[in-house]
Amino acid sequence: MQELDYLKESPSQTAGPYVHIGLTPNKLGIEGIYPFDLGESPIKEGAQGEAITIIGTVQDGAGMVMRDALIESWQADAQGIYPGNDPRGAADPNVTGWARIIADFDSGEWTLKTIKPGRVPFPDGRLMAPHIALWVVARGINLGLQTRIYFQDEDNESCPVLQRIEHRPRVNTLIAKKTAANTYRFDIVLQGENETVFFDM
Amino acid sequence: MTLSDKVERGPLFFRDRDWHPAAYAPGYKTSMTRAPFRPLVSMGSTLSEETGPAFGHSMIGLLDNNLIMNFTGEPAIGERIIMHGRVLDEQGRGVPNVLVEIWQANAGGRYRHKKDSYAAPLDPNFGGCGRTISGPDGAYEFLTVRPGAYPWPNRVNDWRPMHIHISVFGSGFGQRLITQMYFEGDPLIARCPIVNTIGQDKAIQALVAPLDMNRAIPMDCLAYKFDIVLRGRRQSFFENRKEGL
Ligand SMILES: [Fe+3]
């Protein structure tokens, strides 16, 4: 028999307690190496769409708010086109789509200021509800966790990804709650009763 | 940000969850409250995972990949090493334009971080981070000092082997990965609870960089070679998915 000659993905290891040294050194107070930290904002001046703010925390299984969590977000523009390598064409030039978000070192709260993304097609052509993809790392997380932010004021029922979640009450953990005009709340719970849905996609 | 020459498309290979560390690994105590208990929701990748941010070579400063010099301009203390290798995908192809970011303790095993109270001193000339973007064939390199081993609060006498933390982006957000590189011959590797969150020895060995005398520079520095592998992408003429699943 011939041998399959695929390589294996590099195994993950935890980001550890000092991830900010590598990914956001300026925010940690290590200044002078990079002029600024990457991923300060997913949008630039003039980005089209509804400006929104999402505020949240990351909590562990003991109910502790994690002050060491680092999140990255990835989203489409208001038309549902991803910047960079979307096969359907070019996105709004003022949407970079990617942000690096850190929990506040004192309060543990994180904030994402962006525009609401448009609907993006699922592989079969049906549209997914507007969402922002997240990747969460911290000390104690051995492989970065994939999840998504959906929005309370959108039609989420028809989203082919959310439809795959068999335990229906858990869908709620992926939906950001509107707390004021253009403002949402999204708390991520790593473990326990209200554990956020994490994906393997 | 620039678009890479060859636009990468297609669904991502499924992650082999038995190859990666388990989320819940009691030997690494912090994982016990930070591991999800419920099963992950598994499905094929969508455009949200298959697309990703692009990074351009122009954003990288001249000394960004030189951790010996990039903090103050005066050299850091320690064993000078080149860390180099290629970023590949699971099909073995070099992946260009990958942002590779690293961070590490200094030669004494101390991080520039207020939460690190280890007795080893800070090196005034060592910041502890670097970054680069892979070349057309996926190659990358850093000049740095070999980090020291350090103790950490887990069991009473746990020590991290010498290691460098590594963060990489592929062309899709679903390829996002953080890992650590270890050094050939370090007796602390086998004793480390974080290393041992990985269940298979073959997978652990994939994170151990061999000494590479071909890349060492005589009278200057040693070298270690470390290839990084990202999730591959499925490519097929039968991949026209408009008709449904
Ligand atoms: Fe470390």
UniProtKB/TrEMBL annotation, chain A:
Q: What class of enzyme is it?
A: oxidoreductase
The organism's superkingdom is given as: Bacteria
Does the record carry Oxidoreductase as a key word? Answer: yes
Q: Which GO terms describe its molecular function?
A: ferric iron binding; protocatechuate 3,4-dioxygenase activity
Regions annotated as coiled coil: none
Q: What is its EC number?
A: 1.13.11.3
Q: In its keyword annotation, does this UniProt entry include DNA repair?
A: no
Similarity remark:
Belongs to the intradiol ring-cleavage dioxygenase family.
Stated name of the protein: Protocatechuate 3,4-dioxygenase subunit alpha
What is the taxonomic lineage of the source species? Bacteria, Pseudomonadati, Pseudomonadota, Alphaproteobacteria, Rhodobacterales
From TrEMBL, chain B:
| Matching InterPro entries | Intradiol_dOase_C, Intradiol_dOase_core, Intradiol_RC_Dioxygenase, PCDO_beta_N, Protocat_dOase_b
SUPFAM superfamilies reported for this sequence: Aromatic compound dioxygenase (SSF49482)
Query: Gene3D superfamilies, from UniProt?
Result: Aromatic compound dioxygenase
For the biological process aspect of GO, one term held by this record is: 3,4-dihydroxybenzoate catabolic process
Q: Does the keyword Transcription regulation apply?
A: no
Report the top EC class in one word.
Answer: oxidoreductase
Enumerate the PROSITE patterns for this protein: INTRADIOL_DIOXYGENAS
Enzyme Commission number, as recorded: 1.13.11.3
* One Gene Ontology molecular-function label: protocatechuate 3,4-dioxygenase activity
For the Intradiol ring-cleavage dioxygenases domain, which residue ranges apply?
83-111
Keyword Zinc among record annotations: no
Give the keywords, sorted.
Dioxygenase, Oxidoreductase
Name the family: Belongs to the intradiol ring-cleavage dioxygenase family.
User: NCBIfam families attached here?
Assistant: protocat_beta
Q: What is this protein called?
A: Protocatechuate 3,4-dioxygenase subunit beta
**What species was this sequence derived from?**
Paracoccus aestuariivivens
The gene is pcaH
